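Lab notes, practical 5.
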Amino acid sequence: MNNPIHVEKLYRKLTRELDSHQSIRHRYTLIRYFIQQIEGDYNRYESYLIQLAEKLPVYSSFVTYCGLDPAILESDIEIFLELADKFEDIWKSENFRKAVERLKVVCLIQYICVEEMEKLSQLLFNWYKIKEPLIVKIEFRTDSEYLLNISKLLKGRVADINNKDNSIVKSLIGELDQLLKSEADSIFVPTVEIYKHSEFGMIEYGRLRNLNVQIVRSSSEGYDKIFRRYPVIGIEQAEWPESRKISEAARSLISNNKKVSDGKYYNGHAQYQTNIAFHDGESANAAIALLWFVGLQRKSNQRERYELQPDLCITGNVDSAGNLLPVDSEGVDAKVRAAFFSMINFMVVPASQYFQFIEAIDKLKRKYPNRDLIVISVKNLNELLYDRRLTQHINPSKITHIVKQAWQRRYEGVGISVIVILVLIIFRLIYGPLDQRPVSGEFEGTLLKVKNESGVIIDRIEVGAHTVATEQKNITTDHSLVTFWKSQNNYSIIWGETGASQNLSISGGLLKKKQVNRQDPDWVKTLSYDLQFPNKPEIINGIYLPKKLLSVGQIVESEESKLIAVVNHAPYFPGLLSVRDPKTGIELSHFVNTGRIHDAIILDPGGGSKKIAFSGVNNAFDMAFVALLDIDNITGHSPLNDEYNLLDYSLNESIEYILIPKTIVGQSVLSDRKYNIAERLRYFPESGVLEVYVTDYEQYKRDTVELPASRSNVYYYFNDDLSLRGVGTSDGYDLTADYLYSKGIIDQNPDYRYFENYQDRLLYWKGDEFVSFEEFSGTY
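Output from the prediction step:
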């Protein structure tokens, strides 16, 4: 643009608009637009640029810059630095320097949001001269863990940064620390800011706004009244009542979940953290209803209630029954940008618009493929209460709840000590002395229900629906993800959780320990390993999920006590045996198997030589396996081949390892899986026999042969010297074998004679190769 008159008119118009708008986002956009219009002719319009340097807005809190594309911010920063380098007066502007320095921090955070760690590392090096790039191998799980890992890495690099830039990086660290904090009674809502501009029409900005709902006082009107304290286009009042359908939707949630309130009605208000921005529509109504529901339960001191998870946002209108109604389709793209360029992990949307939101996210993922924003569609708000990615189920013990209520009413004329004593006496008279020793765990709904010897539930632990579903599919034992310990006069529970999400790339496994009826855990450990298989590039994340927990000894303080966790990579191989200190959860050692481990048991034949038997699949040889290790030597890796080479680990030289090939039936069945699986183990100490339960084949829908049974099981029985004692087959296996033989698909029916010779096909690890049992036994 070379017309000075036009530039002058544009500048005057710009200054008027800057003075009339409070939105940081809009003022920033207007300045960017002006700079673009002068088309790089900076020298001619130096005076305008110097004046604009004083007007460049400074992005403050996270809600002011979420929704911004970091690549655009990076380009803007380059332009601003170029102007500062050209014109000394611009760089002298304290406002300009502050705005640009802040913009760098915002740009880095936005790259963190979209998981572009290499770009983050590059900019930290370019802008702050860090001596070595930031380690970029960080897996995105929960927002808090992700941010915490990055914050720790940055703190470790502060010493490498010169004093001039040290404060900027510390500002970035401080910003991350602030994002780790979540406030009660609030939730993020993706909104659309709309502005009309004479040059380029309607402008829409997608941004997150932090909505807060407070219940203030009781109401005598027979219904709840929520007052809205934020501006909406077309409404001039500073405070005005929301539609009753919002509070009615919250009441319907209480009714549906049988968590009745105290029978009272309340007045309260809904407001945003930042109220200066206008937006249109009713897309915040679902969020207000959820927060009102949470507040009612807390206000009426419900023992069993729900809280919202911090890393979600929700958009949608709502009717009085809690049904989620669609939002304006024209604003979907802007709402998606708000959530996509933020720390939000989960976006709740109306079910009727699910595919529209997915399509908008897919467009952004083409540019930022690492970003994993999960869209969850719901028809009714009630669905959120059963998804542990979105809500947290609070269920303290009765005694804990009663004591808490008593403490809240401690000034009502009765001392707290008297109240607590009375509560305990009444509980003791009603229930008698309660056995607090846990002996079993039942996974149901979203809970682990811990029971004593009498079958009485003594503790309820929220583990999430995904963990419960995983445990219920486990065929090894009734409660493989939980074990119990005694610590002095207390009893403890150690359990595994498989993560809050079906998307395993963002939600790995955990091990946790707590005392019976204690709310807070003693320790929480994330299952994460960095194993390098050079020829298997698919093993790039460090996420592992627990499969089974075993205890060696039951006294936490005993020197011989060990916790052994069976964990498997998600979603590929390998499997590990992780030996941990039950008192602290710290790992002492681990063993790596080149394939999943499906079961493990402790063998104690006497004489003080305990072993662990484990089974599963060895991917290097595409076969089921069963193996033995000494309890005190759970290190190294399993037998493998060059394709499955594992860096920085050595073979466990004392391991006893057997490969179990498919039988003639499994070999003949066309399936998607080329290996059999040793899924379950049992040990009979009186006879010294180890039973290995193997799935020989599994029928798939696209198989060309329709078999009598969908899967077949074969039972292998091994003696103490690992020789094969006998083989048993399931009815499904026998029927399938008869069918295949009658059709001429196999030339031998696997009968007693077949399995009598089967031992010759088993492969025993000799130390450097697999051999037959005859050769294996001859070496000892």
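Observations recorded by the TA: The first strand starts at residue 186 and ends at 197. The longest helix spans residues 94-113.
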